[in-house]
Design brief:
The complex is a heterodimer of chains A (283) and B (403). With 283 residues, chain A is mainly alpha-helical. Chain A is 73% helix and 0% strand. With 403 residues, chain B is an alpha/beta fold. The chains are: A mainly alpha (283), B alpha/beta (403).
């Protein structure tokens, strides 16, 4: 009996060690860096002065990029949901023997690198691409209009890159739905649409919640799409600011403070969302 | 120039160990986490870089190896086997040193992030020779993170380094560095989509280029050319000049003339015609012209900037002598010409042009590889900046360019 008591804890050791080394220690380091004297440099060293004002300064300077990141990520998440729901629905209920093949197709983009996939969009959306010529022809775009290097391109890239993260959880929860429940709804004189609304949608909610979180969180921190498809300062997201603060400007305290605030903001948004969705028991 | 203090390894390490111990004791003490955080500051780069001793015993004689980090596509390759570099084979045959050649420098800032912690802590980076652009090389020299080159071991560098490159402000005697390749930052345009663009003012204001212009995220390249267009020299300018240049760039960005700021990724966009004209690096232009002769370049009358990627020996390099032998070997004009035939940048070695004539007369005539005295006289090297100025300028530039 004695062994049983410590065994679960012993089994936790690898996980806890992993978290301590690769998560808690870096977080601690980041937290400390965010409180350094912002006037430090590599030549003079960085003194720990508990300069909490770093946070205020960072926020007052870069709140537009924060807001832009969350709105781009929000629009991308909603677009991904609109595209992925019918797709996942079709794979789960209508694909028959093509099911596995279609699932492989959903995952296939992961076989190439994120960077290459995003670069491919510069060809698709380029000023001389067929797509843009088509938009010019139907006058959806003015003669000087373009798609590449606009917010539309950045959001398109975000939507595309995180689409599989939306599709797979949706598929998983749709696929679990017992078809007899939908049959029962029609036995009770529900129309196909009512059945969908009252049975399928509520039962797929765990997938919706998981999918939106898996899309929204990485999309808000992403900076590759804004770099390659965006238009510099006009579309720069908070990830671009952090990247440049760390690597180019060597403003380590600022970069650390921004990273912490990004994490805090995302945790805040996620908690609010889960509460509002009323799905604590589902995730 | 920074004089390195004579290092007394034993003593310095003792002091350092004491400091560390105090920090740790403070952390676990009653004052708790706040005190631990308080001990978290970092010490000055220059001191910690040399405190533990910059040099280690040179293993060059005993261990005949050399570890080199360079940029991709920056050396000759065998026409049959892309991973074989004939000039390196020649080096090994001559010196007996086996070379581990890694193309792991793709961005100055990212590479700096990779080696910063080791160099700041006075540890070895596992590399004997690295290649970095002027301003980053200047930073490493300033921080005391690179070793002084023993001139007795590099007679070829002394004899054959091009005059224009002999004394950059950050290493006036070339005590710490030797250029690997150099390049111009100039204007490039795609003749399929636009008529010639001859200077920065056209680039910034011509209505037919609106939204079809990119500038470089590399602050010195973009700001350097704009300074020249204002009649100022990038080698010697004031804060007011810098602010005037920034205002000019800001205006072009606000008017929608400038589409975005880019790194290397402007090249495919220029080739496809997504952008019509841009500030470009000369080597990329040579490469693009190779595939499409309608990609043209312009040298504005106001002038262009000249930069170099420099060979440096990081502190604690285990094979310093072999690294110096490498520098010396690549400054042999015949070897330099062999590299120039594959790399599209400016060859920094005098006498290589005559050697290149033997390989391919067209190569020796290319103004972007062997520039004439006239082209060179129009080129300017961006001045070295101290840490505070560098940060102020970079912050201002990042705001405009979108970082």
């Amino acid at each position: 009996m004695r062994t049983r008591r410590w065994l679960p804890y012993a089994l936790l050791i690898p996980g806890i060690l992993w978290l301590a080394i690769f998560f808690i220690a870096p977080m601690f380091n980041l937290g400390a860096t965010s409180l350094y004297d912002p006037n430090g440099s590599l030549d003079t060293g960085y003194r720990m002065t508990f300069h909490v004002a770093n946070y205020g300064d960072a926020l007052s300077q870069y709140y537009p990029q924060f807001l832009r990141s969350f709105s781009y990520a929000g629009i991308a998440t909603i677009s991904a949901l609109i595209i992925a729901y019918p797709l996942a629905y079709a794979i789960a209920f209508k694909s028959g023997r093509w099911k596995n093949f279609l699932l492989v197709l959903v995952i296939a983009p992961f076989f190439t690198s994120f960077l290459v996939r995003t670069l491919a969009w510069t060809a698709i959306l380029g000023d001389n691409s067929t797509f843009v010529h088509f938009l010019h022809t139907i006058h959806l775009l003015g003669p000087q209009g373009r798609i590449l290097a606009t917010p539309v391109a950045v959001i398109t890239g975000l939507t595309y890159n995180f689409l599989p993260f939306m599709t797979l959880p949706l598929y998983a929860s749709l696929e679990k739905i017992d078809p007899r429940l939908i049959e029962a709804s029609s036995d009770l004189y529900a129309s196909a649409f009512t059945g969908f609304r009252k049975v399928t949608v509520p039962l797929s909610l765990p997938g919706v919640v998981a999918g939106t979180l898996l899309t929204f969180i990485p999309a808000s921190g992403d900076y590759i799409n804004a770099t390659l498809l965006g238009q510099g300062a006009r579309t720069s997201m908070i990830g671009n600011v952090i990247d440049s603060a760390f690597l180019v400007r060597l403003a380590y305290p600022l970069a650390a403070a921004l990273s912490f605030m990004l994490m805090a903001a995302i945790v805040g948004i996620v908690i609010f969302y889960i509460r509002r969705a009323g799905t604590e028991e589902l995730v | 120039m920074i004089e390195k203090p004579v290092s007394v390894p034993g003593f310095a390490q003792f002091i350092k160990a004491q400091a560390t111990r105090r920090a740790v004791l403070g952390g676990v003490g009653a004052t708790g986490i706040a005190a631990f955080l308080a001990a978290c500051g970092t010490s000055a780069g220059t001191k910690s870089g040399t405190a533990a001793g910059a040099t280690v015993t040179d293993l060059s004689e005993k261990d005949k190896t050399l570890i080199v980090s360079n940029w991709p596509l920056y050396i000759d390759v065998d026409s049959k086997n892309q991973s074989d570099h004939p000039s390196i084979d020649g080096f090994t045959a001559k010196t007996g040193a086996k070379v581990t050649y890694t193309e792991d420098v793709s961005d100055n800032n990212v590479f700096f992030g990779k080696v910063r912690n080791q160099l700041a802590a006075g540890q070895a980076t596992g590399r004997d020779l690295i290649v970095l652009t002027d301003w980053m090389a200047a930073r490493l020299v300033r921080l005391g993170w690179v070793e002084k080159v023993d001139k007795a071991n590099v007679p070829n560098v002394t004899a054959h380094l091009r005059q224009a490159l002999k004394s950059p402000s950050w290493d006036a005697n070339r005590d710490y560095s030797a250029p690997w390749q150099s390049g111009f930052s100039l204007i490039a345009y795609n003749e399929h989509v636009t008529k010639p663009v001859k200077d920065i003012d056209e680039l910034f204001t011509r209505p037919d280029l609106k939204g079809k212009v990119t500038l470089l995220t590399e602050m010195r390249d973009t700001v350097g050319l704009v300074l020249l267009s204002l009649g100022k020299s990038p080698s010697n300018f004031t804060n007011d000049d810098f602010n005037a240049a920034m205002a000019k760039i800001q205006k072009a960005v606000d008017s929608g003339q400038v589409r975005k700021f880019t790194g290397n990724e402007y090249a495919p966009d220029l080739a496809k015609g997504n952008i019509a004209a841009c500030i470009a690096w000369s080597g990329d232009v040579v490469q693009l012209q190779f595939k499409d002769p309608k990609i043209k370049y312009a040298v504005p009358d106001a002038g262009i900037t000249l930069w170099s990627d420099n060979m440096l020996i990081p502190n604690k390099a285990a094979h310093k002598k072999n690294a110096e032998a490498w520098m010396n070997y690549y400054y042999d004009p015949a070897i330099a010409a062999q590299v120039a035939a594959y790399v599209n940048y400016i060859c920094p070695v005098d006498g290589a042009q005559a050697e290149a004539e033997k390989i391919d007369p067209k190569l020796a005539k290319n103004q972007l590889i062997f520039p004439s005295a006239e082209t060179l006289s129009k080129s300017h090297i961006f001045m070295g900046l101290d840490a505070a100025t560098e940060k102020t300028y970079q912050d201002a530039f990042s705001k405009v360019s979108g970082g």
